[in-house]
Amino acid sequence: RDSHDIRLAVIPGDGIGSEVVAEGLKVLEVLGLKVETTTYALGAAHYHATGETLPDETLAELRGYDAILLGAVGHPSVPPGVLERELLLKLRFELDHYVNLRPVKLFPGVETPLGKARPEDIDMVVVREGTEGPYAGAGGVMRRGTSQEIATQESLNTAFGVERVVRYAFDKAMTRPRRKLTLVHKTNVLTYAGDLWARIVERVSAEYPEITTDYCHVDAASMFFVTDPQRFDVIVTDNLFGDILTDLGAAVAGGIGLAASGNVNPAAPGSASWAPSMFEPVHGSAPDIAGQEKADPTAAILSVAMMLDHLGLADESARIEQAVAVDLVERQVDWVSRTTREIGDDITARVAG
Ligand code: NAI
Ligand code: MG
């Protein structure tokens, strides 16, 4: 089979999810690649219509694609936790997306709440652990609804799980000019888990003498995201810390409309532990603006670029990033309000050349 063929599963999802994914696919189409897409209706609307979140047969089919592109799922009418646990987290766990990759990069011309920050000051990648920590679903509740209620939510950290994501982060740091890795945790209070993370980072760092290794508590890191973002290059961190920190990252780098992410299974294609990785904008389904053509599709388009990079199509990925960079400069200089579709059309035209 042609190595440049991509068999892609698309989960447009709810609200603006399907609106922004349509623009991402438009960009993908003009790259001259042979792409075969199959759309899967999953999410809040599908749940209301069928009672299904992620049927086993669908999960089994999804395993057969090269990659998955997701818009966003969710609606206030679905009880909290249902789609998160039974669809999103299930996909991450079942497909072993142990790396949640979230670049935090300020493009030239983009406004940041950090008034004086320049693009070279905000250019990092957060490698968030994706399958363990407080998100593992370990815990329980007793005497619910009474004044004696007890709820526990444990953080699970395995030596295997921590080491593999730490190794990925070191390898990622090797591909970047600054070659710096910062572990973000809370080792002074979360002493058991923190000790495991710190020891593994220290042990693995011996194999990467070219990398400068640093440590930062998560509370201090939150402050430095705002006051001194230059200090970060690659960050490796726990599932929960990474979730929170990357929303802050999205905010300082120009907002949720620009933040892309990958749920990555880094195993070699063909190996037993391989499964398709899933790329998605960080934002949700935004019911407040859904159906109004107000959503910025840039995060979804940049997620497509991340996907191509993951699939070994670095040139095509760079073409998209370049086109987005130009578009972002022009939106500041000559700002007119464009619809979701118009932004997608403009970026597509630039990619097409
Ligand atoms: P949200 O990200 O959907 O929206 C937060 C705010 O940002 C809203 O004011 C929205 O209008 C704005 N916004 C988001 N994306 C935008 C874009 N591309 N362009 C312009 N403005 C944008 O987060 P919220 O409101 O907390 O969640 C809404 C629903 O999405 C919930 O059901 C939630 O569970 C779900 N969700 C799903 C995610 C996923 O599928 N991975 C991730 C986050 C939330
Ligand atoms: Mg989040």
UniProtKB/TrEMBL annotation:
Catalytic activity, EC: 1.1.1.85
Domain Isopropylmalate dehydrogenase-like residues, every copy: 7-347
Molecular function per GO: 3-isopropylmalate dehydrogenase activity
Cofactors demanded by this protein: Mn(2+); Mg(2+)
Keywords assigned: Manganese, Metal-binding, NAD, Oxidoreductase
PROSITE patterns tied to this protein: IDH_IMDH
InterPro entries: ICDH/IPMDH, IsoCit/isopropylmalate_DH_CS, IsoPropMal-DH-like_dom
Record's protein name: 3-isopropylmalate dehydrogenase
EC primary class: oxidoreductase
Transmembrane segments: none
